[in-house]
């Protein structure tokens, strides 16, 4: 098919030649019909060429599209089976890039693969015809072409090197942005934004530096591309007329060879490009040796050194041990997630897995629990009841139809954990691997769940259950206990056996289980501890006078229902917070948390173009347009000169003034090339300028955006702005503008030339222009909308993909890989629905526009035939050879208009996100608090109310309270009472609706956010680490000396771990701190707090992921190091706050009780009942 197209390309110059049109004009006696026939033939040829070419493109594009879909599918399937070590070597960002950008490259290549054989063919045919016309002098022109090839390929090689480098910077920038957006709340709480902003801008600076270099190269290659045909023509003609005086350059020779040289231009330039594209795709294949990453097989890691473990079916086995002793690794090994060095792991039956950090999909709550199982209402209700989710459903806005945001953003930590557990229970599997599911919930909820779900009488009785836990109180009820120490099993057996063996475990239980009896409602005979422990607490009724003594004692006994020796946390987080958004009363049940991404409709507003022009700088823009006019003037000049030259009279078989003719022709041509060079230089600089400005504005705004924006916007959507849209502005828009201006001015000059040579043509121009305009508007409108739909339907593919990658182990455990692959394929199909019409609309356009171009050729020829008596051959040659070029430039002009309109949308999208509302200024000049503020650490809430976002209910309602400097305040309350909200208010993550907070008498609403946030310290509930060195994670501004950092690490009990690493403080944390255990990450957060050491410390149940002993150490550290500071603790383990100055009980956003722990217990209120549940009263 392509072959037919090639042969048609050559029929043009031949019709033009072989005395055909030009000799017809020269021959004044030829019959008129002959001329009309020639014109008609030219037209028919052109139409056929159009039809065939577009048929070919249609096949190419559809094949390309299929290829892209296939590649995306393969990558998705692969990501579900790669091993963890392989996953570490490529970040989610890189894989998503592979899926979006690189799959596209394959597709682009498909269109041009045919060039590999057709380009040499075209070159050969063109040369053959040229030889017939000009004889051996053609070789001079060919020599020039051949010389240009190494020049072009050198540029191509260099450009590719730059591309690789730039991709590297881009990857690292996107990866960093991904982490920043993931941990944006932490950055805000620590006031660390400037440090991270600098990092991004640093990478961006390097990226733009590389872009600039490749822009210089590109303008060189544009120069070569524009000047090549001209240089070739120049040398050929010069040689032709100089070799022999008898060689006469007449219109026929000159214009036929010009047409042929123009045909040559395309294959000569495309060939190196296609080759470089193939090389690039090969390079992608190498980079993405994603394919070579090893597949999963059941394995077991180093961490679990040598383990022999047989779990009988139907048993409940508890796994206990210190932080980092390999409990989670054991569970992972059973799932086949670890690397197996030796040995066997066999699991019989289906598996349900509850990970330590719950993985929640962006779907409704019900879908998260059903997880693809068939709905069974009765069973579903039982599961909700057992997992204590009924009460939560009452407060969620849409009940179980509430849409959960990405990563479960609008559920509290405990709710997420319970949903994750409910999913496991509903799945009705044979084996349950529960990695510390009780850590994130309150003690009474933990007890409920243990009794109703996990325990001997729970829903799961008779199933095999492996429970990783820290809760001592549950141990008497399990069948077996496995104690892990440093990845080895140190003891195993029933609770009774272990106590009898009297080893480390028994010792530990004695220390930590004093309150064991209180915890159990009914006396437990199993609990040997109860006899051996001096249980004063049991006998002693709580009377106001002795309560003090006892409380003291209990707090030492650190328990919240006890815990287990080594680290496993049952009660890890004893209640649950993390409410990124506290539950709110039901509103409209279908209210979506995450709004669907909007698509702009209609034409792109002119303001968007103007914004881009402003970013480029208006002066530069004008200069560029002016230069283009000059370039086209020079080009027309050169061709008019040539046409004039061909008409020079022939005297005695020779032409005169050849030297002068050649000189002027050369000067005009080179001038044209130079102007292009300057022009593309200027444009490139302007484009890079614009890219810098737009990215900086976007970044600046995103760091200043309030947290509520991040709660309702999926990260994928923001990342899309930083990757796809910035890429468009960096690399797509400038060349598009270049092409657009080029084609626009070429089309314009064609019209001018044709009208100048055959004035009659002006008559046809208007109808043709109208036709063209309609086709163009129709196409642009359709194509733009299709492009928008396509890009909106593309984001879900990527966000689903990154969700899958993060939950891969859960998906595999539940054997849901196939259905996830189906979901991904479905999303791909959705995307194709708008992609395929895009391809077809391009073909539609091509045929219509080329038809207009072909009409221009027809009329130019017709009018030449009609007016042959008044025309000279040179002018006809000129006008027809211009007309032949116009088809291409008209077609490209529409394409470019459309490309430009589609791509300028990126500016619109980036503008939209650079103008979202911002939070208060970081620093307010003249309002900065004194250097040592807050020196006393006094807090005062005055009639304070707050809500999460506009339109939601108040979370805190009219709080009034005063905290004196140095007081230790415990904050307790059921889930959703507003505990976390209160801490967020201190940092002004949430802004007051009414009322105010004063710290040391300064109203916090009047000072800059960074002034405020940098003077408070928080240990947040979710420990967030960023990839980079440990040092950077502790001190991103390099404010502290190494001694201070080591001191902080020592106090946070990390010194041993860090000093055992070869790189010490430069230990590389992976993305999200994946290479540290959750407990260790929490300790890093503690070290951050110790470094900052401000007068006010806020603990958001920071000890949740830590075993009891470490917890005691931390509590000690906090008590000693922050002795004179005001400490606010959101507590789930009530024992940690029993010796605090006062306890604040929140209920539904108001203060229910606020007094010393002793008097609250005496008054038998809410606090008393909570203490009773925890066995402290």
Automatic annotation (TrEMBL):
What one GO molecular function would you report for this record? ATP binding
The answer, when asked if tRNA processing is one of the entry's keywords, is: no
Ranges where the ABC transporter domain occurs: 288-511, 939-1173
Signal peptide location: none
Q: Where in the cell is it found?
A: Cell membrane
Q: What residue ranges are annotated as transmembrane?
A: 33-53, 109-131, 137-155, 223-243, 619-642, 662-684, 726-745, 751-775, 851-867
GO cellular component labels: plasma membrane
Topology relative to the membrane: Multi-pass membrane protein
Q: State the InterPro entries in the record.
A: AAA+_ATPase, ABC1_TM_dom, ABC1_TM_sf, ABC_transporter-like_ATP-bd, ABC_transporter-like_CS, ABC_transporter_C-like, MRP, P-loop_NTPase
Q: Which keywords fit this entry according to its UniProt record? A: ATP-binding, Cell membrane, Lipid transport, Membrane, Nucleotide-binding, Repeat, Translocase, Transmembrane, Transmembrane helix, Transport
Residue ranges occupied by any ABC transmembrane type-1 domain in the UniProt entry? 1-280, 622-902
First-listed, main subcellular location of the protein, grouped into a coarse class: membrane
Q: Which domain of life is it from?
A: Eukaryota
Question: Catalyzes what?
Answer: leukotriene C4(in) + ATP + H2O = leukotriene C4(out) + ADP + phosphate + H(+); 17beta-estradiol 17-O-(beta-D-glucuronate)(in) + ATP + H2O = 17beta-estradiol 17-O-(beta-D-glucuronate)(out) + ADP + phosphate + H(+); ATP + H2O + xenobioticSide 1 = ADP + phosphate + xenobioticSide 2
GO BP terms: lipid transport
| Region of interest called Disordered, as start-end residue ranges on this chain | 561-593
Query: What Pfam family is a match for this entry?
Result: ABC_membrane
Keyword Electron transport tagged: no
Family, according to the entry, reads as follows: Belongs to the ABC transporter superfamily. ABCC family. Conjugate transporter (TC 3.A.1.208) subfamily.
The protein, known as: Canalicular multispecific organic anion transporter 2
Which organism does this sequence originate in? Answer: Buteo japonicus
């Amino acid at each position: 098919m392509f072959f037919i197209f090639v042969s048609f390309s050559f029929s043009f110059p031949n019709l033009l030649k072989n005395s055909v049109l030009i000799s017809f004009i020269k021959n004044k006696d030829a019959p008129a019909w002959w001329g009309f026939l020639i014109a008609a033939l030219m037209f028919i040829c052109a139409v056929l060429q159009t039809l065939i070419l577009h048929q070919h493109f249609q096949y190419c594009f559809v094949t390309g599209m299929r290829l892209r879909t296939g590649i995306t599918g393969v990558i998705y399937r692969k990501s579900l089976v790669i091993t963890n070590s392989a996953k570490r070597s490529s970040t989610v960002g890189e894989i998503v890039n592979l899926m979006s950008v690189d799959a596209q490259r394959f597709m682009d290549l498909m269109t041009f693969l045919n060039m590999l054989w057709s380009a040499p063919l075209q070159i050969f045919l063109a040369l053959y015809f040229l030889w017939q016309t000009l004889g051996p002098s053609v070789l001079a022109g060919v020599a020039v072409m051949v010389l240009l090839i190494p020049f072009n390929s050198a540029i191509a090689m260099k450009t590719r090197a730059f591309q690789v480098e730039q991709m590297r910077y881009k990857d690292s920038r996107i990866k960093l942005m991904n982490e920043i957006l993931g941990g944006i709340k932490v950055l805000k709480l620590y006031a660390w934004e400037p440090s991270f902003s600098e990092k991004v801008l640093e990478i961006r600076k390097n990226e733009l530096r590389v872009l600039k270099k490749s822009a210089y190269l590109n303008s060189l290659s544009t120069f070569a591309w524009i000047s090549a045909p001209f240089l070739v023509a120049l040398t050929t003609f010069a040689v032709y007329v100089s070799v022999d005086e008898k060689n006469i350059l007449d219109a026929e020779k000159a214009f036929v060879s010009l047409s042929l040289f123009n045909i040559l231009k395309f294959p000569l330039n495309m060939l190196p490009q296609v080759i470089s594209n193939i090389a690039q795709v090969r390079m992608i294949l190498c980079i993405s040796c994603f394919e070579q990453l090893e597949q999963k097989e059941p394995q077991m890691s180093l961490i679990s050194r040598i383990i022999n473990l047989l779990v009988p079916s139907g048993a409940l086995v508890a796994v206990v041990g210190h932080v980092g002793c390999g409990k989670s690794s054991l569970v992972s090994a059973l799932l086949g997630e670890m690397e197996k060095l030796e040995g066997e792991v066999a699991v019989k039956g289906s598996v349900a897995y509850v990970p330590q950090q719950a993985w929640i999909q962006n779907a409704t709550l019900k879908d998260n629990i059903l997880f693809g199982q068939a709905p069974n209402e009765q069973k579903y209700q039982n599961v909700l009841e057992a997992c204590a989710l009924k009460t939560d459903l009452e407060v969620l806005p849409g009940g179980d139809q509430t849409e959960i945001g990405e990563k479960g953003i609008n559920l509290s930590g405990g709710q997420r954990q319970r949903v994750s557990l409910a999913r496991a229970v509903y799945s009705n599997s044979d084996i349950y691997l529960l990695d510390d599911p009780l850590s994130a919930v309150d003690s009474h909820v933990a007890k409920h769940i243990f009794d109703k779900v996990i325990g001997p009488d729970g829903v799961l009785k008779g199933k095999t259950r492996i429970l990783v836990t820290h809760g001592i109180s549950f141990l008497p009820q399990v069948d077996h206990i496995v104690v892990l120490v440093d990845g080895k099993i140190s003891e195993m057996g029933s609770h009774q056996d272990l106590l009898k063996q009297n080893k480390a475990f028994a010792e530990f239980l004695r220390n930590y289980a004093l309150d064991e009896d209180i915890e159990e409602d009914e006396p437990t005979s199993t609990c040997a501890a109860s006899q051996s422990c001096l249980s004063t607490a049991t006998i002693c009724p709580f009377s106001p006078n002795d309560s003090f003594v006892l409380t003291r004692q209990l707090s030492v006994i650190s328990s919240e229902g006890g815990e287990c020796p080594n680290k496993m946390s049952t009660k890890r987080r004893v209640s649950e917070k993390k409410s990124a958004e506290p539950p709110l009363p039901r509103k409209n049940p279908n209210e979506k948390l995450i709004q669907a991404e909007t698509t702009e409709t209609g034409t792109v507003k002119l303001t968007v173009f103007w914004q881009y022009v402003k970013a480029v700088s208006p002066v530069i823009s004008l200069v560029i347009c002016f230069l283009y006019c000059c370039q086209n003037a020079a080009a027309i000049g050169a061709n008019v000169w040539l046409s004039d030259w061909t008409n020079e009279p022939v005297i005695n078989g020779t032409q005169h003034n050849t030297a002068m003719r050649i000189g002027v022709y050369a000067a005009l041509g080179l001038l044209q090339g130079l102007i292009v060079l300057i022009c593309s230089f200027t444009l490139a600089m302007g484009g890079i300028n614009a890219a810098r400005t737009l990215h900086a504005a976007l970044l600046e705004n995103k760091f200043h955006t309030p947290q509520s924006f991040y709660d309702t916007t999926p990260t994928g959507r923001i990342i899309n702005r930083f990757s796809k849209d910035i890429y468009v502005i960096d690399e797509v828009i400038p060349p598009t503008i270049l092409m657009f201006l080029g084609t626009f001015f070429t089309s314009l000059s064609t019209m001018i030339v044709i009208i100048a040579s055959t004035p009659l043509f002006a008559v046809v121009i208007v109808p043709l222009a109208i036709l063209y305009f309609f086709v163009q508007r129709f196409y642009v409108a359709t194509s733009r909308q299709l492009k928008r739909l396509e890009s909106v339907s593309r984001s879900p593919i990527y966000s689903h993909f990154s969700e899958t990658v993060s939950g891969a182990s859960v998906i595999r455990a539940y054997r849901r890989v196939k259905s996830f692959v189906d979901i991904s394929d479905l999303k791909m199909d959705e995307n194709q629905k708008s992609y395929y019409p895009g391809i077809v609309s391009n073909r539609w356009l091509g045929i219509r526009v080329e038809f207009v171009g072909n009409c221009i050729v027809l009329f130019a020829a017709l009018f030449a035939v009609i007016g042959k008596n008044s025309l000279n051959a040179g002018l006809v040659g000129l006008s027809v050879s211009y007309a032949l070029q116009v088809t291409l430039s008209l077609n490209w002009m529409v394409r470019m208009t459309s490309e430009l309109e589609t791509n300028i949308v990126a500016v619109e999208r980036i503008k939209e996100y650079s103008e979202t509302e911002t939070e208060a200024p970081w620093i307010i000049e003249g309002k900065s608090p004194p250097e040592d503020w807050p020196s006393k650490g006094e807090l005062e809430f005055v009639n304070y109310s707050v809500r999460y976002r506009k339109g939601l209910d108040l979370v805190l309602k009219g709080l009034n309270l005063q905290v004196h400097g140095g007081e230790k305040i415990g904050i307790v309350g059921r889930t959703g009472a507003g505990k976390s909200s209160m801490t967020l208010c201190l940092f002004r993550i949430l802004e007051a609706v009414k009322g105010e907070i004063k710290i040391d008498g300064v109203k916090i609403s009047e000072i800059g956010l960074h002034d405020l946030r940098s003077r408070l310290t928080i240990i947040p509930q979710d420990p967030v680490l960023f990839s980079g060195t440990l040092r950077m994670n502790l001190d991103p501004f390099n404010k502290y000396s190494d001694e201070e950092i080591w001191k902080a690490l020592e106090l946070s009990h990390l010194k041993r771990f860090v000093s055992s690493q070869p790189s010490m403080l430069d230990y590389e944390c992976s993305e999200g701190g994946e290479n540290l255990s959750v407990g260790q990450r929490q300790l890093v957060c503690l070290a951050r707090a110790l470094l900052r050491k401000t007068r006010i410390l806020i603990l958001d149940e920071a000890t949740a992921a830590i075993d009891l002993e470490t917890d005691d150490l931390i509590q000690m550290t906090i008590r000693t190091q922050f002795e004179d500071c005001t400490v606010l603790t959101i507590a789930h383990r009530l024992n940690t706050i029993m010796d605090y100055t006062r306890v604040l009980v929140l209920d539904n956003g108001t203060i229910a009780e606020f007094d010393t722990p002793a008097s609250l217990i005496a008054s038998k209120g809410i606090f008393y009942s909570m203490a009773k549940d925890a066995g402290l009263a």
